[in-house]
Amino acid sequence: MRILLVGAGGVGDAVAKIAATRSFYETFVVSDYDQARADKTIAWIQNKYGDDVAAKFQSAKIDASNAAQVAALITEHQVDYVINAVEPKFVSTIFSACYTAGVNYLDMALSLSEAHEQDPFHKTGIKLGDAQYALHEQWQRAGKLALVGIGVEPGMSNIFVRYAADYLFSEIDEASVKDGGNLVVTDENGKEIFAPSFSIWTTIEECLNPPTLFEKKKGWFTTEPFSEPEIFEFPEGIGAVECVNIEHEEITMLPRTMKLGRVSFKYGLGSDFIGVLKTLHRLGLDATKPVRVRSAQGPVEVAPRDVVVSVLPDPASIGPRMTGKTCAGVLVTGKSKDGTARATYIYHVADNAETMAQIEAQAVVAQTAFNPLIALELIANGIWEGVGVMGPEEFDPKPFLDLMSSSTGYNQKWVAQERLASAPLRLP
Hints:
This protein is of the alpha/beta class. The protein is about 35% helix and about 25% strand.
């Protein structure tokens, strides 16, 4: 297997570092618009694992916004699997480049949504991933796999839901993804600062777009950002965190192939974080359309959201100043195999101190990075097979979870924790 990784930022860097501990591939090309970032990642691998391991890695320069250039790089390096580890705004170009080049594709975030023009807080417009799923039959006919949404959320969360359906529940009333943590980032003086642990571009997109929900009787519909606040008790010392609805891929993915009463995604943002995002929205700083700005060099065109990205710390750089844990999981409610009421929270926790010690990557990006590699290893070994545009919930979850938790695999503990089968504590 010859792999091209597009993007050597926080997640991409972590993907390559974890890949260095596995042997299922022949060549691993690390590419980035700034090739020096890819070189830095490979130098880290060489320093930690030696010349023999580093010899399997190559660096390359890439422009993820140029489908023809992406396709040319695929051909040049004769890769057969591409991992997309850049921001979702580049999904369409990389996805189309892979189809054109006739190779298999993986990503960790789906194609972007577009809100309903007349009624954005009740009706869906173009949902996350619609543009990719629309091409399912074309990918099928080409005999190639586009495995979409194989990060942590979506990705591992989808696999948790499939595992619950196959092994724990006879009927699922709701699958509610709950993401929260107690991560803190400080400046050089030890003062806590606003520093999102993931791309602020993506964070704004997820949190300020109308959240999509799914209910069996209603289908897909939308609501107001930050709606339905509730207190959720996260495990392993994280504690109670206020969670709210945000837009996320699982809601558009899971109901396509699974029988679920309701699907939701709630993110533990906290009131301060929500306040910052609301302020950015009120000021128009979340906009992606360029505006004309006067500067010392004359007028320039710049997207307000790109300005916000530029002034905040790079998520790939904040690990040394971060403390705490992050938890990704799904609260599944319904009937157990014996017909009794059941509520199970299936989760994975990443501790920043541990991920920094292991791969010098902060917890959120490290938690995302191992999932596409597990999927690729299962594919390389013939355990997962498929063609077309598919989500991870369409594959057998047990081999994934076994390899994820095995000491000879990725050594990542996951837990199915029983909860009281009662309504969540909703806030007014």
